[in-house]
Specification:
708 residues, alpha+beta, 8-stranded mixed β-sheet, 3-stranded antiparallel β-sheet
Length: 708
């Protein structure tokens, strides 16, 4: 059936702080008028997009969705600021790593034709790639488990100006040592996908671009998808931008041919939607290949990587979803697909280092009327573990049920999973139980959350429950309803949880029923008003909505406007409302840092670490926040975050490497050399070690003292 399509443009009629603003324009999802509720939500999305673009100074964005036979795409702002060229549905953006799932599809097509063996060493198809101490297979490359490193000297490898062919692209990294024995470590790397591009060329006898046009893009009607050639005339080519301090600048020119099959394409949002729709509709792959592609891989130690063959795979609000993001000079992109719902959402923007997922989430809510994710805070420390178990069961179980109506495990395995959860996840030893819960979704933990959760979803569905209702009820309603079902069932027919767990879940769910409808204010209100409203609503409750993300946005927006007192007030409110939340304490710590209050900031960050060592005050999270601040122009604040992170995590080599990068950009060469040297002393083999050694030499540092 031919799809009904609507392509709109929200004209950017004014500039605010030098950034094109989106203006609302009539839109539709079909030639006829859209349903009133959907039309209203899309109109709200227009307003939200304008505010988001203004806050993040995004010049242009194109977003869209397709569901069944309906497709809606709309451009906001400018594709070219200098020439006032509007962003439209036809705008051609760099795809960046959204190229990777396309490459994975091509590999699997050739597997179906018998031209590629997934478990063959890559040299079977790319004989010029040097043999390593361990074989690297095509399957491992698809899942980033091949031991292939990523950029080692990003100042060189991410800034090529000259065009490279396939052989030259492979030569960039072919002499790199493996970072680990294949299969033992997940390392996201575009270089591994470049190798897959070379495999495609060898197995098909065609160039990568030629094969993709004939066998992937063409059959799916992706007529706007091309290799990104700076010399070619490409219709509707979008111009990219970056923030330098507070000022918008044109993106640096980088020829991305060196990333050809990992991130070297350009396309429109309708083509992104056509790809997502075509994959889950089975238009260019068999059902067996699609099923294999969307299975998350695991390391040899039994840890899920949350990545299949070219797709990020992680349950989203208890929904079955596959996705891939992209980021490179000139662009950010995101492709999100919910195959069981026949829903695909895509976004592309022309400002580097912004978060495109926010647009995906907001458009999902507009299209479905469902919240993207239910953020629930458990105010009872003793009941937090029960909620963590319920959340794990819900995310894994309902997502599986949304994907298929087939049982995941037999009755014996299911009862064993319940027994393990009762004995270990709910055991009196809190530390051991925490470790078990953390492992429970992985093969190393027997995937007990999936085994038990899938059986819970199946039992609820067979009892007549519509599982879609849990998009609003969430994990607590899901677990509570199963507890009641199992209590009413004949003894021994349905697996039961520990009675203490059942009691905790029923009590938490009752509290959540009373508070779940409380929403963050749609209109801006003062911190004092928020404080009064939310304290009153949450008083005496054991479970209520977690508004730390909203308070984070409020604090960041206030800080960006120079309103330090308002930012600090928002962070204080977060801690007062959510004292057990690691994210609340991290927010307070980061806000205090931005205000120059170092010692209390470190104390708050230590509290966040005590609540969750892998949470918002972890090395990775603080490193990401530092780069976010730098990308928004707040370089000094980003440096302060890194210095605090290094104080909290003195053994983390990557934090020292990041500090060195910040020092280099500020012209502080001696400090940069010392930070690189410190990183190498901490871990001579950390992922950036080779680049650090090269940087020390380039900066004029002594080389004889370098770690081997």
């Amino acid at each position: 059936m031919q799809s009904s399509k609507y392509y709109g443009f929200a004209g950017a009629l004014a500039l605010f702080c030098g950034v094109a603003q989106a203006a609302s324009a009539p839109s539709s999802v079909s030639p006829a008028a859209p349903p009133a509720a959907l039309a209203a939500r899309l109109a709200d999305f227009d307003g939200w997009a304008a505010r988001r673009m203004g806050a993040e100074r995004i010049p242009g964005v194109t977003v869209g969705f397709s569901q069944g036979d309906v497709e809606w795409v709309k451009g906001y702002g400018y594709a070219d600021l200098e020439n006032r060229v509007p962003a439209t549905a036809q705008s051609s953006y760099r795809m960046a790593s959204v190229t990777k799932p396309m490459t994975a599809v091509a590999i699997l097509q050739l597997v179906e034709q018998g031209k590629i063996d997934l478990d063959a060493p890559v040299q079977t198809y790319v004989p010029y790639f040097p043999v390593k101490p361990f074989p690297v297979t095509v399957r491992q490359l698809l899942g980033h488990l091949g031991g292939i490193d990523a950029y080692r000297d990003s100042r060189v490898e991410q800034h090529f100006k000259e065009h490279k062919d396939t052989r030259q692209s492979i030569a960039v990294f072919e002499q790199f040592d493996l970072i680990a024995e294949p299969g033992t470590r997940f390392r996201y790397t575009s270089y591994g996908y470049n190798l897959l591009g070379a495999v495609i060329e060898a197995a098909s006898g065609e160039s990568y671009g030629g094969y993709m046009r004939r066998h992937v893009w063409g059959p799916l009607g992706m007529d706007a998808t091309v290799m990104d050639d700076p010399d070619a005339v490409i219709a509707h080519r979008v111009r990219g931008y970056r923030l330098a301090g507070k000022e918008l600048k044109n993106s640096e020119f980088v020829d991305i041919s060196s990333r050809f099959s990992a991130g070297g394409t350009r396309a429109s949002v309708p083509d992104m939607l056509a790809f997502g729709r075509g994959v889950h509709a089975g238009k260019i792959l068999s059902a067996a290949s699609v099923a294999a592609m969307v299975q998350p891989m695991a390391t040899r130690a039994g840890r899920l990587t949350n990545y299949g063959m070219g797709w990020e795979i992680l349950p989203t609000g208890g929904r079955y979803a596959i996705a891939h993001s992209g980021q490179q000079p000139e662009t950010v992109t995101y492709l999100y697909s919910f195959p069981s719902r026949k829903l695909t959402i895509a976004v592309a923007a022309n400002l580097e280092r912004v978060n495109p997922e926010a647009f995906v989430q907001r458009l999902f809510e507009a299209v479905t009327g469902e919240p993207w994710q239910l953020n629930t805070y458990i105010a009872d420390a003793g009941a937090q573990r029960a909620y963590q178990v319920a959340q794990g069961l819900f995310e894994e179980g309902r997502a599986y049920a949304e994907r298929t109506d087939q049982a995941y495990a037999d009755a014996a395995a299911t009862r064993a999973a319940f027994t393990h959860i009762n004995r270990q996840a709910l055991a009196p030893d809190a530390q051991a139980a925490r470790a078990y819960i953390e492992a429970a979704r992985h093969p190393a933990g027997g995937r007990v959350f999936l085994v038990a959760g899938a059986s819970m979803a199946r039992a609820l569905r067979e009892s007549g429950v519509d599982l879609n209702t849990y998009s609003r009820g969430g994990a607590l309603a899901f677990a509570r309803d199963y507890v009641r079902l199992s209590q009413d069932a004949k003894a021994g027919t349905v697996p039961r949880f520990d009675p203490a767990f059942e009691q905790a879940i029923v009590a938490l769910a009752a509290s959540w029923d009373r508070t779940a409808a409380i929403a963050w204010p749609a209109a801006s209100v003062s911190i004092a008003a928020l404080d009064s409203q939310l304290r009153t609503a949450f008083r005496g409750q054991r479970a209520y909505p977690d508004f730390v993300p909203e308070l984070l946005d409020l604090a960041q927006a206030s800080a960006a406007r120079g309103e330090a007192d308002a930012a600090l007030a928002a962070s204080r409110l977060a801690v007062e409302l959510y004292p057990l939340s690691n994210r609340a304490h991290a927010l307070q710590g980061l806000t205090l840092l931005r205000a120059g209050k170092t010692e209390p900031a470190l104390a708050a960050l230590r509290l966040a670490l005590a609540r969750d060592p892998l949470g918002a005050a972890s090395p990775a999270a603080l490193n990401l926040e530092a780069y976010r601040l730098k990308g928004s122009g707040a370089v000094a604040q980003g440096m302060a975050v890194l210095q605090a992170a290094a104080s909290l995590h003195p053994r983390d080599a990557n934090l020292q490497d990041s500090l060195a990068e910040f020092y280099v950009e500020q012209g502080l060469r001696p400090q940069a050399v010392e930070a690189y040297r410190q990183a190498l002393q901490l871990d001579p083999r950390y992922p950036g070690a080779v680049g650090a050694k090269a940087a020390i030499i380039r900066l004029g540092g002594e080389t004889k003292a370098l770690a081997p």
